Write the structure tokens for this entry.
Amino acid sequence: MKNRFLTTVLTAFMLVAAPAGGYAQANRTHVLSSDKSSLVVTTNDGGTAYYQYFGPRISSDDISGLFGVNANFTGNTLPTFGPDPNGEKALSVEMPDGNMSLDLKMDSLRRTTDGKGELLILTFTDRVYPLTVRQYFRHYAGTEVFSTWYDITNNAKKGAVKLITFASASVPFTRSNNYLTQFHGGWGSESYMTEEKLPDGQTVIADKAGLRNAFGSNPGFMISIDGKPAENAGEVFGCNLLWSGNYKTRIEASANRLNVISGINDDTSLYSLVPGETFSTPEFVMTFSKEGKGGVSRAFHKWARLYAIANGDKLRDVLLNSWEGVYFNVNQETMDQMMGDIASLGGELFVMDDGWFGDKYPRDNDKSSLGDWMVCEKKLPQGIGGLTQSARRNGIKFGIWIEPEMANTKSELYEKHPDWVLQHTNRPLRQGRGGTQVVLDLCNPKVQDFVFGVTDKLLSENPEIAYIKWDCNADIMNYGSLYLPKDKQSELYVRYHRGLHKVLDRIRAKYPDVTIQLCASGGGRVGYGLLPWFDEFWTSDNTDAYQRLFIQWSDSHFYPAIAMASHVSASPNHQTGREVPIKFRFDVAMSGRLGMEIQPKNMSDREKEFSKRAIEAYKSVRPVIQLGDQYRLISPYDKGAMAALMYADETKDHAVLFVYRTDYLNGQAMPKVRLDGVDENKNYRIKDLTPLNPSKPSNLNGKVVSGRVLKYAGLNVSGSLSRPWTSLTLELTAE
């Protein structure tokens, strides 16, 4: 992944005046700064570290003033259950002798750099017990994103330390008229946004599903400072957790304090740290913006493309996925036909979804065959090689679906290795999808080898495979491992994901350039806990264009367009039955990574002709959409029957605008679309990219308009969007 480094300031200052709260002049202040923000931590001779500031960038000259007017936080960077047991804690343990306290003092502080940016490392030891904690603070170079986490090491020669609570971060934020933006939902309705005033007391965002940790809630959230959040104005903090399993975020608010404690969900996750073992918490990442929610989003998008998704600087292909076209009815003839069709439309990749495998138990439905990753010869007599040859003949790439973390009880794998699945002892085996699905035990190194081997065998035997769709259609239903000893059963949630990460490390080390999609019954795993190993995520199994406006809008708060798989599907839609014109479906899908989820032979000639033109248009502006800065302009959540967003490159010379109308309300005025992502000192030529009739584009086509007019007066689109389910995709080029 290519890094674009900007200058980062990491300095230490001696306070010239005693800070509020009674700290001595000997306190040391340590500043991590990006171009726009600063994070300030102080340490004292007593061995304690405190957050003092996180907000707009400050200089050395500002430090004493910060304390002089009591503008600092003074929040412990790592509150522990110890001599003071009161309040919420980030870390609590039980020592081998039963002592349930920690009493840490800071021994050293080190400033350094790694391949990702500047690091501040604080080392603490317990005053009595042989236990070390290293706390890390990072600024990611070239971005506005900071992070924190810690390692805890048991240095004793004997006796395990029990980790009871082990949150990654306890961070204070500015308390004012705060609003919380968070995302929740379920299958087919992922990531619906809510924005509510943050009440006094404790607000919890958590997940305990085990695997699909984004269905109930998403680990990403935003906190605005002074009132309801706006898109491009106001002070907003954005936070996320880089963990693929259960998580818990506690937001504590009072009249004058606001604190966030976030990390692995410690419920049913007691962890025994044996002598010599180190436990690392996942990173908690955060950013601050004076440019509203949009500023937070653009900061996270840039950071993600640089550091948090695989191949973040590599443009994604336009693809056809077979699922909604044929479901389980996979065969060589149909796959050949679909590959020929997507090639003729200008697509670049075909992905064969579920239904291609199984020998003893052919995969004809969801009741069997998971784990038996051999080609079903009845369906595909020429094997995978026949499919890659067909793709080559059609001038496109080939991809394939797998669900390697899972098995069915009706499978050869389960018959051979029933001990490889997660299960309770002395309890009936609970089974999921199809009444037979179970989860493989990735705590077990043999199972890790098997799961790696599934992908390795496919890719090594078929090196032309360019794309893997990695699915996960179950959560942990049986909390038990036949591999783990009885005193380690409570570590299952953590050890499963550590095992999964090991598998993914091996895959990426050997196959760095293969595109891998993160799918989990749709958007069940949308989060940065796994995206560093994946190029993109499947946004939702719900491909209805109208609902996708809401889902994709919400996901865009933290996740960039390049990672967001957005597909054109059939009308009526298979999930909702809604009938939506082909142009609207394309215009929605083009705002992410464009694909198709349809049987092309069922499309009309008119639809095919439009699809060809729309794909060509998308490819012409793909760098702007996938690598540019996003500006959300009119929210579908405002219930105004409209939505609008745009992307612009760094120079603001090239932009793409999407506008949608979903309803008609007689007598209701349509808002002007004001373009925040343009340069007011430039003139822009407008091009209608996706007219239904190329000879009759929008009346805006060919117009040259100043950036000042576009930004402050806006575009009147009422003439082009006079009916429901109408839309515009406009290219703007500076002249």
Residues 9-308 form a domain with the Beta-galactosidase; Chain A, domain 5 fold (CATH 2.70.98.60). DSSP finds twelve helices and 37 strands in the chain. The radius of gyration is 27 Å.
